[in-house]
Amino acid sequence: MSIHHEILIIGGGNAGVSVAARLRHSGRTDIGLIEPKGVHYYQPLWTLVGGGCAYQEESVRPQSSVIPQGVAWIKDAAANIDPEGHSVALASGGTVTYDYLVVSPGIQLDWDKVPGMAAAIESPAASSNYRYDLAPKTWNMIKNLTSGTAVFTQPSGPIKCAGAPQKIAYLAADYWRSQGVLEDIRVVMVLPTPGMFGVKVFSNELERVVAEYGIEVRFNSEMVEVDHSSRTAVIADGKEGSRESLHYDLLHAVPPQSAPDWLKRTPLADPASPAGYVEVDKNTMQHVRYPEIFALGDAGSTPNSKTGAAIRKQAPVLVKNLLAAINGAIPVARYEGYSSCPLTTARGKMLLAEFDYSLQPAPSFPFIDTTKERRDMWLLKRYGLPFMYWNLILKGHA
Questions:
Q1: What is the β-pairing status of strands 108-109 and 72-74?
Q2: Residue 380: which residues within 8 A CB-CB, separation 6 or more?
Q3: Which residues contact 378 (CB under 8 A, 6 or more apart)?
Q4: Which of 76, 91, 277, 394 has the fewest beta carbons closer than 10 A?
Q5: How many Å apart are CA 233 and CA 215, to the nearest integer?
Q6: Between the CA of residue 329 and those of 72, 170, 314, 326, what are the distances in Å?
Q7: Residue 53 designated active-site
Q8: Among 53, 71, 151, 161, which one carries the catalytic annotation?
Q9: Measured distance CA(92)–CA(71) in Å, rounded
Q10: Which residues face 185 on adjacent strands?
């Protein structure tokens, strides 16, 4: 059986739903959206769940409640894309054809890329806020630890919300400090980067934060192996070429990430990237080889941080350029790489790092100093951003 839509969207996450809503506002009536899951997650809240500052249930709603009215929900998974035939194969065996395609299936978590990681996160002393079901476990581990070694890791390569591996370390250290046990806990943060953050002004503030907590930072490093039975994490220093075995009493692990395997195998993938992201023009969001195809979000090849804030700026650009293509015009709207990382540095404090392709600060609130941790930014993270997500962004509003 084959279905046809003028505009077909792959993925019912932040990117796919917000684009669908904007297209409906523009008057397009023939839109199909492929999404297999029956629930929709607001993933940025999982760090706060893991830090004991939010409830797991706040981050999930039925998928049916966020699909825009008038959009046909195809409750199935995409399995392949034939750009020459303008068709998408479904996991169930069906096919959907299109005139224009928006690709936004998100990013996959490659747990098996690090030997022992998949088994470790199921063990009592390790967890990851990158899974909905594990975020409450992270909080239980944090509040029950009174002494020992806590290790927080980040993999190399692009990941969604690259600040999340740091955020949970700060929330944990802040809690342990409030309980009077921080001095009895060795906190080790493993970062693949040469500094705390890619933008110097924010990196400087985070250096102050880690010094205040007494966190040991392993730069240019990542966890390459973990043995949950002995609670040992092997840390490789890419710059020095050395390895270190760390015993842990608490491990927060973040897996390497890449485009979904099925997407990597399609002609849409960037041939220069093993991660398999959809090869788009970084400003117009249009595919460089197939002009009727656009992509945004985590599965796109744009060289920005993979965050919901980036999608918020990409979606209106993509929709303007898609509508231009439909009308036979040249896409001229531009995305300049805006992204933001709301870095929770303590309970009640947050550093809002906003920047663009040039790695220069790009503040949304130029009248306040967001290069320092602030109480009002915490309120934005905890209450403002979730409200905006459910009530404005997913409904296609600015």
A1: unpaired
A2: 342, 350, 352
A3: 344, 347, 348, 349, 350
A4: 91
A5: 17
A6: 27, 49, 19, 7
A7: no
A8: 161
A9: 20
A10: 148
Q: pLDDT value at position 1?
A: 61
What's residue 365's pLDDT?
Answer: 83
Tokens for 160, please give them.
């969604």
pLDDT in tens, 150-199: 999 999 999 999 899 999 999 999 999 999 999 999 999 999 999 999 89
DSSP for 249-297 reads SEEE----EES-HHHHTSTTB-TT-TT--B-B-TTT-BBSS-TTEEE-G
pLDDT tens figures, 315-366: 999 999 999 999 999 999 999 999 999 999 999 999 999 999 998 888 888 8
Q: Return d(Cα 218, Cα 313) in angstroms, integer.
A: 33
Q: Name the catalytic one among 341, 343, 346, 385.
A: 341
What pLDDT does residue 371 have? 84
Instruction: Report the residue count for the chain.
Output: 398
Active site residue 341: yes
Two tokens, residue 387: 């409200």
- State how far the Cα of 231 lies from the Cα of 210, in Å rounded to an integer: 24
